[in-house]
Design a protein that fits this description.
Elements: H1 2-6, H2 14-27, H3 31-46, H4 48-73, H5 80-97, H6 99-102, H7 108-120
Helix pairs in contact: 2-7, 3-4, 4-5, 5-7
Amino acid sequence: MLEAWRAQPAGLPPITALRRAIEIGFGSLTPEQAAEIMVRGRLLYSEPELRSAAINELIRSSQLMVIELATRLGRSPDEFEIRVYTGAVIGAMMAAILPLVDDPSADFVALIEQAFDYVEKGMPI
């Protein structure tokens, strides 16, 4: 998915580029591959020990995303705004993933779309 994000046109807003990368990544999966990913995801978030490892991976992934976003925008990964934006996007992705633990029929891509739409609206409460 990282390569698909990097391949998006430079002028796209970052969340649009990420959205397209996720669509490409999940769109290229066979139904069996998608089902396997969902089963693994549910297992990761339902077992406390595995959830802890998943959180560590999430931290690593968010650090990578900070670097990728900064590079994409020609900015420093140390900039506060880059880190906050990345945190908001990662948080939105987590909010989209969590329903899959309890509802195997939930549509991950649709949930990501909904979460990213909310971020793009400025996250009004």
